Amino acid sequence: MPQKRSTALHVVVTAGPTREYVDPVRYLSNVSSGKMGFEIAAEAARRGCEVTLVAGPVRLETPVGVERVDVESAREMLAAVRKAFRGADALVMAAAVADWRPARRLAGKWRKKDDGTDTAVLELVKNPDVLATVARNKGRRVVVAFALETGDGERRARRKMARKNADFVVLNDASALNAERSSVTILGRDGSRRALSRKPKREIAGALIALVAQRAQQAS
Ligand code: CTP
């Protein structure tokens, strides 16, 4: 019997940091907790969306009704997002993807030398931009970027949104990292602006999913 195609909005959400290994026991990463992305995935599922959550290494439980794909590195995240986004209607890139990774992952432990040197150099190479890569050919699908800016971030965030071909950018400051509440401004490609000050992440997630659903409906 042919499978019935679901009419629910299919949303791909990314969350958490990525880990870029130096050797088998060391990596470069960041302090992202993944809370915002998990809240967005949970809220989307509560609102009846089909949700694929691509998660970096975090200590959080999978929200009810959400399909979770665990990844570690930026390149693994790119592969998982590419696959999930193929059949989806929207992508929310809440993950804090590491911009750089070590040029080489050593097979054995990186040992310090007993030759009196007190410095070491780690060569880094740029990671692929997950969002920009998949958004390039997004068609009518809705894409949301996150931007962490200090100072007058709105102009930079709008430029980032255009450069990465996103429909929305969620602008927040460093206080959002690892916190329960957050102050964000959701900027739309159409010039719209919605500021949410010191709100629980669940409330921010709700506002964002409502905007994404509305845009996806307009696009269909
Ligand atoms: N992003 C991504 N792949 C990367 C880097 C970032 O998909 N390799 C996504 C993030 O998930 C986020 C947005 O792009 O949605 C953030 O863009 P970025 O240019 O990294 O901005 P900031 O993190 O705000 O920092 P900066 O521009 O200062 O590097």
Short description:
With 220 residues, this protein is an alpha/beta fold. The protein is 28% helix and 28% strand.
Compressed to H and E, one letter per element, the order equals EEEHEEHEEEHEHEEEH
Rg result = 18 Å
Determine the fraction of residues in helical runs and give it as a percent range.
25-40%
Shape: globular
| CATH homologous superfamily descriptor | CoaB-like
Helix and strand composition category: alpha/beta
Question: Order of strands across the widest beta sheet?
Answer: 5-4-1-6-9-10-11-12
Count of separate structural domains: 1
Say what the CATH topology is.
Rossmann fold
State the major sheet: 8 strands, mixed
> Strand portion, in percent?
25-35%
Bound molecules: cytidine-5'-triphosphate
The averaged pLDDT comes out at 93
What is the distance, rounded to the nearest whole angstrom, between the alpha carbons of the first and last residues? 28 Å
Query: Architecture, according to CATH?
Result: 3-Layer(aba) Sandwich
Uncertain ranges: none
Count of helices?
A: 5
Q: Would you state the CATH class? A: Alpha Beta
Strands, total number:
12
Highlighted features:
single chain, 220 residues, alpha/beta, Rossmann fold, 8-stranded mixed β-sheet, two-stranded antiparallel ribbon, 12 strands, 28% helix, binds cytidine-5'-triphosphate
Structure in words:
The protein has 220 residues and is an alpha/beta fold. The chain has one domain (10-101, 121-219): 3-Layer(aba) Sandwich (Rossmann fold), CATH 3.40.50. The protein has helices at residues 35-46, 74-86, 130-135, 153-163, 201-219; strands at residues 10-15, 20-23, 26-28, 50-55, 66-70, 90-93, 100-102, 124-126, 142-148, 168-172, 181-188, 193-200. Bound molecules: cytidine-5'-triphosphate (CTP).
